[in-house]
Each structure stands twice: as C-alpha cells, then as structure tokens.
Design a protein that fits this description.
single chain, about 90 residues, alpha+beta, 3 strands, about 25% strand, elongated
C-alpha cells in the first residue's frame, strides 16, 4: 500500500519540495485522494487500455484555477494548476 504522507515527510526531510507522480491508477488515485496534488499534466489518448484512471470521478472535488489543453499529435495534454483549494 502506498503511504502518501510518509513519502512526503521523507521527501521533506531530504529538502525535496516537488515530486512528479507517474504511475498507474492506484498510485495516482492515492495522491489525489490525499489532497496533495496541486498540478496535473495529463496526457489523454483517444483510446484507453484497461479501465483507465478514475480522474473524472465525481468523488474528487476539483477546483481548476487555471486549465489549458494542447493537442499533441493524436493526443491531448491537459495542464491544470490550483487543482485543490485545500493545499
């Protein structure tokens, strides 16, 4: 099991102030549910393998202060900052 707060505490002790999360849906979801994500850089493909990432699940209370979408080939890059108001 991923213990988000433990990872962030250890990173802080090592003077690491920013972490990029690249993982599957479980890893991503753990960080989102912990309320510690302040920026998304999400590539969206017109096709998905498996069940995909539950990013658009209504259980996630999202507040997008700034959002930009850019087309890159057949995919889209969604960049959103200020994702959670409680960070």
């Amino acid at each position: 099991m991923i213990r988000v707060r433990d990872i962030l505490k250890k990173a802080g002790k090592e003077n690491i102030a920013s972490i990029m999360i690249e993982g599957g849906s479980e890893t991503f979801t753990r960080f989102v549910e912990a309320g510690v994500v302040d920026k998304y850089l999400l590539f969206v493909s017109p096709s998905f393998l498996g069940s995909g990432v539950p990013l658009f699940n209504s259980a996630f209370k999202r507040v997008y202060l700034n959002a930009n979408v850019k087309r890159i080939g057949e995919d889209f890059l969604v960049e959103a900052t200020g994702v959670y108001g409680n960070n």
